[in-house]
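SEQUENCE-TO-STRUCTURE ENTRY
===========================

Backbone structure tokens: a row of integers, each naming the local backbone shape at its residue.

Task: work out the structure tokens from the sequence, keeping to the layout shown below.
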Amino acid sequence: MDQDLPIPGPRTKAALALLERHRRRGVQPLQRPQTQPRPMTVQSPLGPRDPAPRTGPACSTISEVSRQLGLTLRTIRLYEDMGLIECERGYKNMRILTASTQAKLGTIVELKRLGLAISEIVVLLADDGGPSPEIRSRLEARLLSLDQQRDAIVSYLSRLKA
């Protein structure tokens, strides 16, 4: 029965039941006109009226910067919320980081790796990046601590060899 039914699409029970009702009532099935396939046209994802995204050699998106610096997107957004960095907005409100913002973010990452707390980094960057005596003394104390730890490890290893 359903081999002679000219229905497009899936042959579900509902579609077959509808066609059977139409056949009993004498309603002719709708014939689709034969059309030529339309050529595929590729449109820009930006559309004709949307502005171009503001990316250039000195600008990067937040995802590119996060991959370069090994940070999560959430961390970069947190730093922006804290006021440590400023992100510009581009196409569809996308965060765009300029070269100066990327450099500042790199400084933050470097100071975090050196063992400074984010509160200390906020103080350091609030002083326009100038050398703060407190931060300098904190870094020197950390360096002294690491030297002592290194010496302890070297002496322990020398005892293991003996």
